[in-house]
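Journal club side-thread
Mid-discussion, someone asked how the predicted structure for our own chain would compare to the paper's figures. Pasting it here so we can look after the session.
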Amino acid sequence: MTPLDLIHGLSWPDLPPEVRARVRLCLLDLIGVAAGGHGTRLSAIIRDHAAAHFGGDAPMLFEARTASLPGVALAGGMMIDSLDGHDGYNPSKGHIGCSLFPAALAVAHRAGASGADFLATIAMGYEIGARVAEAQHGTVPEFHTSGSWGAVTAAAAAARLLRLDRDRTRHALGIAEYHGPRSQMMRCIDHPTMVKDGSGWGAMAGVSAALLAQEGFTGAPAVTVDAAPAYWRDLGQRWAVLEQYFKPYPVCRWAHAPVEGVLALRRAHHLRPEQVTRIEVETFHESVRLAMREPKRSDEAQYSTSYPAALAMVHGEIRPEHLADDSLDHPEVLRLSRSMVLREADRANAAFPLRRFARVTLILHDGRSLRGDWVTPRWDHTDPPTEGELRVKFHDLADPVLGRPRADAIEDALSKLERTGLAPLTDQLFAPIN
């Protein structure tokens, strides 16, 4: 099967049951994270920007205002990215759904796509996105943000939904790869700001690429699609959507193993934060680079290892409100974050990116030193969350923002999408938040 065969030929009923179930849960998770991110300053700025500068009549997520299709994709992707709780893919060290979902939703609504076709487009997007991401990492030395392969993914989704022919689809993929945000991921890790993982920009670039190709604009061949055949040999046989991880905490995935190590020792020894003098963490290089010990903004707190690990010690959990801009001056969290010792470990470096290891030691005021086992993040694809756990996460994020009745209506609409069509879902997603 070729990429173009998958883009235009994938049928929802033909997918394995476990793939169909996972696609639905990925959508539910992304919508929950979007709701949770709606109140961030980043999301407010980007929605204002899309409404003011991307004129059009397409509805935005959770908004009364409208924008162009690329503007809607930009705003939706950055809303999700503003709360770092969305699914991801270990081999690419990044994310697929964050660019894919808002781009596909905007174009599907405009094109009048059926519920089944929208679901199949999301399934297709995870498969295309995973392989483009792997091909890019395998053929380009720089570590780019998720928006770089997110642009090609969004273009594939838009090309399918716009029913472009194969020639124009090739051009859409090429335009998207050429213009997608080849932004420097580690630069954002060292200097966290609202640019985040580039996913919104990728969604915007991908939708723009498909619209341009529809009008006859041409693009250079997409290297990751046309000149990297080794990455496409298992297309239609291995389902990458089943290999996505989910996040129990809305912070960078690289901080999750240290967080789990802290929580394990806290539970095992029934500790209170005031008993702890210092937290020491052994982990991989990229996690150590998340070095924001005293974050002043939500984006800095999400791109930190020490601050989330300190939050875990103090609260026993990490919730969005712990990461809000006006909640970052908790004295006990700051004490533990400032004093944390982070060290690289050969074992963790060797396993990254497919596995993310950390080992935590707690130094207590009474002189004891408690060392935990090597741990990995929860909810990896090798030990995924249950459906019930993901539904609880969705409601934890969505209910405080949307209200339980509206969150229930979204959950119900997703469960019936191929039978009732997109309208029951978009009626909820495109209505403003009061």
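Post-session note: The first helix runs from residue 3 to 9.
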